[in-house]
Design brief:
Elements (H helix, E strand, L loop, with lengths): L10 E2 L5 E2 L2 H21 L2 H19 L5 H25 L1 H4 L17 H22 L2 H25 L3 H21 L4 H24 L1 H7 L4 H4 L2 H22 L6 H27 L5 H24 L1
Antiparallel strand pairs: 1-2
Helix pairs in contact: 2-3, 2-7, 2-13, 3-5, 3-6, 3-7, 5-6, 6-7, 7-8, 8-11, 8-13, 11-12, 12-13
């Protein structure tokens, strides 16, 4: 792989050998640290972490306890590499618009920290390794779903939907929720109604989550020509969809309860669902009342909601 970094300056020592002095060795170490950080940033570790937050409890529920260690490790590593690889390829594809947006212009490619070729090779390598691990250590269903989710995110969503339709977030929700069914399929080689119910929670959850972010960075998306819903529709319409999909998220969470979950999950889903819906309504009332809109409150709360609900799934799987 090639990357844009400065080579450490060498100087001639009395013995005639070219060796970096102390300051140059420190600079070399810093250079490698910067390269590592750049590669790490490309994988969007916060997104990968959130994917695993939903996948691990799903696997525990599918196994009614702790899953087989090999399968568990394969999905954790393979799923993490799949999410990271898909994110790297997303950065490669979106390098033209990332440089136009305040939120993304400091990413490694628009900041000229690495070359597009290096990023492309890195992303493809992670994607291939992830699919290979799933194929070797899980089953054909989980492997096919992993490959499809990478293709869907980078080709169908990033290359096509994201730049062409305000429904991009809705259709992009498929790949965001895919790790749930991948995890279940890896354990049981099936996708029963419970797995689809958990999939529905994550799928519907993504609309209020990402719409809140899009409201915050509306000007960024407009500058880059991305037709996110807040860019091309009124805030009244955006708030309507935020509330609608928050309600659907809560309904999906409650629908999962009688399919095999216990009271810990049920009580948690009710309480967290009420809090999530309250915050969505609060955001709509801010806009309607003419006060300053604070969409990031809903954005951060949505992450807490998803984490707590799936933690309750894990607890119910163990008791």
């Amino acid at each position: 792989m090639s990357m844009i970094t400065e080579r450490p300056v060498q100087r001639r020592t009395p013995g005639g050998a070219d060796r970096p002095d102390g300051a140059e060795r420190v600079e070399a170490r810093r250079s490698w640290v910067a390269v590592f950080r750049a590669y790490l940033v490309l994988t969007k570790p916060q997104i990968v972490e959130l994917l695993l937050v939903t996948t691990v409890p799903t696997m525990m529920l599918a196994a009614q306890g702790w899953p087989d260690p090999v399968t568990f490790a394969a999905v954790l590593v393979g799923g993490g590499l799949a999410g990271g690889g898909a994110s790297v390829l997303n950065c490669y594809i979106d390098r033209d618009i990332d440089q136009l947006m305040r939120r993304t212009k400091r990413r490694p490619l628009p900041a000229n920290q690495m070359t597009p070729r290096a990023v492309l090779i890195f992303g493809l390598t992670l994607a291939v390794i992830s699919v290979a691990l799933m194929a070797l250590l899980t089953n054909w269903l989980a492997t096919a779903l992993t490959a499809f989710s990478i293709f869907y995110y980078d080709v169908i969503y990033t290359l096509w939907l994201k730049r062409r339709t305000p429904a991009n977030t809705f259709w992009g929700g498929v790949c965001g929720a895919a790790p749930v069914v991948i995890g279940w399929a890896a354990v049981t080689n099936t996708i029963p109604p419970m797995a689809w119910a958990l999939f529905a929670i994550v799928f519907f959850w993504q609309m209020p989550h990402f719409y809140a972010l899009a409201v915050k960075y509306k000007d960024d998306y407009a500058r880059a020509g991305i037709p996110m819903l807040p860019v091309v529709r009124s805030m009244k319409r955006v708030n309507f969809e935020i509330i609608l999909y928050t309600v659907l998220t809560v309904i999906a969470s409650l629908a999962a309860w009688p399919l095999g979950l216990g009271p810990v999950y049920g009580v948690t889903a009710i309480i967290m669902g009420a809090v999530f819906l309250f915050e969505a309504i609060r955001l709509a009332r801010q806009e309607g009342g003419g006060t300053a809109v604070k969409p990031m409150r809903l954005f951060h709360l949505s992450i807490t909601y998803l984490t707590v609900v799936f933690m309750a799934v894990a607890v119910d799987a163990l008791i």
